[in-house]
Amino acid sequence: MRMVAGYEGGKALAVIKYSEKVLEHFRNPKNIGMIEDADGQSTVGSPACGDQVSMFLKIREDRITDIKFLSYGCASNIATGSIITEMAKGKTLTEAKAITWKNAVDELGGLPPVKIHCSVLAIDGLRAAIQDYEEKTTGIKQERKVDEMMILDELKKVIYPKNGINIVDTNMIRYLSFEEGVITIEISIEETDLFKQNVLEEIDEHLEVLPGVRKIEIKVVEY
Ligand code: FES
């Protein structure tokens, strides 16, 4: 592990520990760039930090023959983009879709909990580029029906920065309903939790873009 610190606006930033492999992929990222005549491509943004990643794919007979990415994010995002493009190259689309942010983080030798959302962004980019290819080739737009299961899957993309685990698996979601366009959530988080506002805003940003959602009601409970 290496410690990296910095300064922003004259203030010292917290020290973040990165594995050697993260630093190596950050300093010498693989597969950086664009593919002009890509078969599938995406640009997605992270509700957690506002950063973006773009992915470009060349596909032959259902297999990824080339893949490149551009990152407008941080060191963790660049390192994750680099590792997942290496992992996805040569894989079938089904195999590539099965790559998770957890696989990427394991492959990198871990990421600090506050940086896990950067790996979620990179995986979202890969999946969106595959979806773009599939929609272009089939002519069918893949729109998943918004229901409680789908909302739960979206909430799994919200990472609790304290432990680097999503808020669903951290058992913070105590109640969820979706009726007549209104999502109601009860979330268990301490009033004094430093990440409370951050988590609540991220939930809103993930859910407000879902089709058919007109209101999100979040109740904070402390149990
Ligand atoms: Fe935005 Fe890492 S902080 S991608």
Quick take:
With 223 residues, the chain is an alpha+beta fold.
> Stretches where pLDDT falls below 50 for ≥5 residues?
5-12
User: How many domains, as an integer?
Assistant: 2
Sheet with the most strands? Answer: 3 strands, antiparallel
- Widest sheet, order of strands: 5-6-7
CATH topology of the largest domain: Sufe protein. Chain: A
Q: Give the class from helix and strand content and strand pairing.
A: alpha+beta
**Averaged pLDDT:** 92
Report the principal-axis shape: globular
- The strand count comes to 12
Give me the Rg, rounded. Answer: 18 Å
Q: How much of the sequence is in beta strands? A: 25-35%
Helix/strand order: EEEEHEEEHHHHHEEEEHE
CATH architecture of the largest domain: Alpha-Beta Complex
Distinct bound molecules: FE2/S2 (inorganic) cluster
* The first-level CATH class name of the largest domain: Alpha Beta
Q: Number of helix segments?
A: 7
Fill in the keyword field for this structure.
223 residues; alpha+beta; Sufe protein. Chain: A; GMP Synthetase, Chain A, domain 3; 2 domains; three-stranded mixed beta sheet; 7 helices; 35% helix; 26% strand; binds FE2/S2 (inorganic) cluster
Describe the structure.
- This protein has 223 residues and is of the alpha+beta class.
- It folds into 2 domains: 20-138, Sufe protein. Chain: A; 148-221, GMP Synthetase, Chain A, domain 3 (2-Layer Sandwich), CATH 3.30.300.
- The protein is built from 7 helices and 12 strands.
- It has helices spanning 20-27, 75-88, 93-97, 101-107, 116-138, 148-155, 196-207; strands spanning 2-4, 7-8, 11-12, 16-18, 40-45, 52-60, 63-71, 159-160, 165-166, 173-179, 182-188, 215-221.
- The strands form 5 sheets. The chain has a 3-stranded antiparallel beta sheet, with helices on one face. It has a 3-stranded mixed beta sheet with strand order 10-11-12, with helices on one face. A two-stranded antiparallel ribbon has the order 1-4.
- Strand 6 (52-60) and strand 7 (63-71) form a beta hairpin.
- Helix 2 crosses helix 4 (101-107) and helix 2 (75-88) crosses helix 5.
- The longest helix has 23 residues, at 116-138.
- Residues 5-12 have low confidence and may be disordered.
- Bound molecules: FE2/S2 (inorganic) cluster (FES).
- FE2/S2 (inorganic) cluster binds at residues 46, 49, 51, 73-74, 76-77, 118, 121.
